[in-house]
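Handout, section B. The chain below has 410 residues.
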Amino acid sequence: MKIQTHQLANGIRIIHHPVKSAVAHCGIMINTGSRDEAAPEQGMAHFIEHALFKGTKKRKAFHILSRLEDVGGELNAYTTKEETWYYASFVNDYYERSIELLSDIIFNASLPEKELEKEKDVIMDEIYSYLDSPSEAIFDDYEELIYHGHPIGRNILGMKKTIQRFNSKSVKAYMQQHYNTDQMILSSVGNIDFNKLVRYAEKHLNHIPSNLRKHKRLTINGYETRELIVKKDILQAHCIIGNRAYSAKDPKAQALILLNNLLGGPGMNSRLNLSIREKYGFTYTIESNYTTYQDTGVWSIYFGTEPQSVKKTIKLIYKELKKLREIKLGPLQLKKAKQQLIGQLAIAQENNCNLMQSIAKSYQTFDKVERIEEINQKILAITAEEIQDVAQEIFKEGQLSTIIYEPKEA
């Protein structure tokens, strides 16, 4: 992977990975998300992501959407707990058009009050849609459970009572504090000479005044195990069992990625899938997930099942976790687990839009991007002892928190 980087005078960084493709992907990642909101601002980072598309000083909403779509391109955005993305996919010929449009949206938004009011209704519809999907909502409730009282535990979309208070003034105040130029990365994957990319960035981004970050994120609070049962108007039961885990920079993170993939990753041959779905037929979906943040991480197992099968499924899960704590992986098991993860990472690299986002996140977190060969070497170096050590630390029964959605009539 050939990575090229540059920094503008105002602190905005540029990262580019050249590929021979007719289609390019380019976006601006801002190191701010829902965890940076004060309590009265809950939902603000996501609201801004919507608000910036409502018009700029030289474009109405229609012209923003049409600028790339007229030439077959796509414009998109999303918000996470730690970052906000504005990005585009387009034919290589439209690099400058895309960078100019991204710059206009982020730095020249007009934030018309009438349009902001309409967008509140759109976001409320998004919230209701999300609440109608228990298999999605339970993940936010789980993080609220294990990060009780900390902003990282709050859901990204916000609540009606906070969203209704937002206006142009509060949006501008949040952006002034959190849309810091030294926390922005222009990321690109495409077939363009890097010097030309830098010239486009200088033309459309260099005039942005420097706005360096002065504040620090609230440190993560102490962890206490919790259990919660929520009665809902649903037919199927949903459950998450999990624990806090390692941050992105923790040396043990790579071992947990490997272990999590073996336990309940996307492969149909994961231990949870084989021992619970295939053997007993208790659940259609069972998976384990590991998400890293700047200073913490979340590991969890999710499943949906019939209400009468919840306890039996949890018992089987604990049995699998106990095996990983007490029995070291054999050489063949470990080799297969490594080969599977390396193969999955190679396939993921083929998606250039995902690659554009992952190199920016790596650059933000580590100030560098590791080549796929370096990542593979790290995976190959993981020992069975390290895997067992991580299992004993993260899968420890007394450290696990549980949330269950139960049907009201059950």
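Note. The mean pLDDT is 96. Compare this with the example in section A.
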